[in-house]
């Protein structure tokens, strides 16, 4: 298992996609290495008492510096930015 950090929503200038997130994996620094993670499952645990788990899937690489794009089944809350995601 690998941990990644949630960077931001996937967004444009005036719009954002609530289910799409950009994840940064600390050991990955090129697009070629990032494409190895495409298709793997990602899960985010909420830090609250209920500990909800939201499941997603890595869809593609984003840019040339090793960032990946993940699509979650439900949108993550805004507080998820900066927290960790487990990649299986």
Characteristics:
single chain, 88 residues, mainly beta, Thrombin, subunit H, 6-stranded antiparallel β-barrel, 50% strand, globular
Topology:
Blueprint: E1 2-11, E2 16-24, H1 31-34, E3 41-45, E4 53-62, E5 67-72, E6 84-87
Class from secondary-structure proportions: mainly beta
Task: Please report the distance between the alpha carbons of the first and last residues.
Answer: 5 Å
Portion of residues in beta strands equals: over 45%
Report the CATH superfamily: translation elongation factor selb, chain A, domain 4
Strand count, sense and barrel status of the largest sheet are:
6 strands, antiparallel, barrel
The low-confidence runs, each spanning 5 or more residues with pLDDT under 50, are: none
CATH topology value: Thrombin, subunit H
CATH architecture verdict? Beta Barrel
The number of helical runs is 1
The level 1 CATH classification is Mainly Beta
Mean pLDDT across every amino acid position: 92
- The count of DSSP E runs of length 2 or more, i.e. the number of strands, is 6
How many structurally independent domains? 1
Helical content (DSSP H or I, runs of 4+): under 10%
Radius of gyration: 12 Å
Strand order of the largest sheet: 1-2-5-4-3-6
Backbone shape: globular
Order of helices and strands: EEHEEEE
Structural write-up:
The protein has 88 residues and is mainly beta. The chain has a single domain (2-87), classed as Thrombin, subunit H (Beta Barrel), CATH 2.40.10. Helices cover 5% and strands 50% of the residues. It is built from 1 helix and 6 strands, in the order E-E-H-E-E-E-E. Strands 1-2-5-4-3-6 form a 6-stranded antiparallel beta barrel. A hairpin with a 4-residue loop joins strand 4 (53-62) and strand 5 (67-72). It is globular, with a radius of gyration of 12 Å. The chain starts with a strand and ends with a strand. The relative contact order is 0.34.
């Amino acid at each position: 298992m690998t941990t990644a950090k949630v960077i931001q929503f996937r967004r444009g200038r005036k719009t954002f996609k609530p289910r799409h997130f950009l994840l940064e994996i600390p050991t990955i620094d090129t697009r070629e290495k990032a494409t190895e993670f495409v298709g793997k499952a990602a899960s985010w645990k909420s830090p609250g008492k209920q500990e909800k788990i939201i499941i997603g899937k890595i869809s593609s690489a984003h840019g040339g510096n090793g960032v990946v794009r993940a699509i979650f089944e439900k949108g993550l809350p805004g507080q998820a930015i900066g927290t960790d995601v487990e990649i299986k």
